[in-house]
Design goal:
globular; 2 domains; about 40% helix; about 5% strand
């Protein structure tokens, strides 16, 4: 749960800069598997990705929002990780925000684990994908 748009923007920047920090690429634009390229209009969004919501936080006009987003991301290369402020693995925001949200959670609820709704389902065996998809590359993508 993210408190506000500022936290959300920081998370989006942190995520698209992960391959840069890992020294896999020099810029976010070079990582082809990121949402960054679709957000800046370099590629079409895939899989239901909606970039307009994020861009709306930068400007009302898409072209201006994209330029501001590019600047915002490039300025984040040396920023600290927003995960350092994460509470109970799911809350990002002020202490006041977290206290307010926790009031809606039963007192005996265990917060030490990731919520089951956020967990990934168990992987199917590779043979499942091999049988389901005749095209090898498609099977690999679906398994991933």
């Amino acid at each position: 749960m993210v408190q506000n748009e500022t936290c959300l923007r920081e998370l989006s920047r942190y995520i698209v800069l992960s391959p840069v920090r890992a020294r896999m690429v020099r810029t976010a634009n070079q990582w082809h598997w990121s949402s960054y390229r679709a957000t800046i209009g370099a590629t079409k969004p895939k899989g239901g990705l909606n970039t307009d919501c994020l861009l709306a936080g930068f400007a009302n006009r898409k072209s201006i929002a994209i330029e501001r987003y590019k600047t915002f991301v490039s300025e984040g290369n040396n920023q600290l990780s927003p995960w350092e402020n994460l509470t109970n693995q799911v809350f990002l925001g002020s202490k006041k925000f977290i206290t307010k949200i926790k009031k809606h959670i039963p007192k005996d609820k265990d917060l030490s684990e990731i919520l089951s709704s956020q967990k990934r389902p168990l992987a199917k065996p590779l043979l499942f994908y091999q049988k389901k998809y005749k095209n090898r590359d498609r099977a690999i993508c679906e398994a991933f």
